[in-house]
């Protein structure tokens, strides 16, 4: 029973720590930022977009006061070599879950400022073609340096 309670309270804490943000039929959850391994290098932003609607949408841009520019990126694996390319928009299909995660789609935050310290909650605005702007908070998580902190 204690074990169950502890599991439940961890679950609740996790839910509290990672709120979801919704607009229209879109929900953005599990947003987090990996701080740069070296100050001044880009940080990476990850999140999950759930579209519960019957129509597709498109993620067009990302902005945060904590970085000069933010770019949508796709990590590519070709001939055993990992690289990344900038993508202009990301299709969010109807009735789908799109993960922005290490080694895949992600957002690169260039020239991040000093507010990106572990534990900080950073405001980020995602702009979708149909749904419009959706404001979220992403928590900065410390951890091992980005495995995909490739050169840009
Ligand atoms: Cu990147």
Automatic annotation (TrEMBL):
Q: Which domain of life is it from?
A: Bacteria
Q: Does the keyword Signal apply?
A: yes
Any signal peptide, and if so, which residues? 1-22
Q: Which UniProt keywords apply?
A: Signal
TM stretches of this protein: none
Decide whether keyword Signal is in the record: yes
Protein name as annotated: Copper chaperone PCu(A)C
Q: Which organism is it from?
A: Govanella unica
């Amino acid at each position: 029973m204690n074990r169950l309670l502890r599991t439940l309270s961890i679950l609740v804490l996790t839910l509290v720590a990672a709120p979801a943000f919704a607009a229209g039929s879109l929900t953005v959850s599990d947003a987090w930022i990996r701080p740069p391994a070296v100050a001044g290098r880009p940080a990476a932003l990850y999140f999950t977009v759930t579209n519960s609607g019957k129509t597709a949408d498109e993620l067009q841009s990302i902005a945060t006061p904590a970085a000069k520019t933010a770019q949508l990126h796709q990590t590519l694996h070709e001939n055993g070599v990992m690289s990344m390319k900038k993508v202009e928009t990301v299709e969010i299909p109807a009735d789908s879950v799109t993960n922005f995660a290490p080694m895949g789609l992600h957002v690169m935050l260039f020239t991040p400022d000093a507010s990106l310290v572990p534990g900080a909650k950073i405001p980020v605005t995602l702009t979708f073609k149909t749904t419009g702007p959706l404001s979220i908070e992403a928590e900065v998580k410390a951890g091992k340096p980005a495995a995909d902190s490739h050169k840009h």
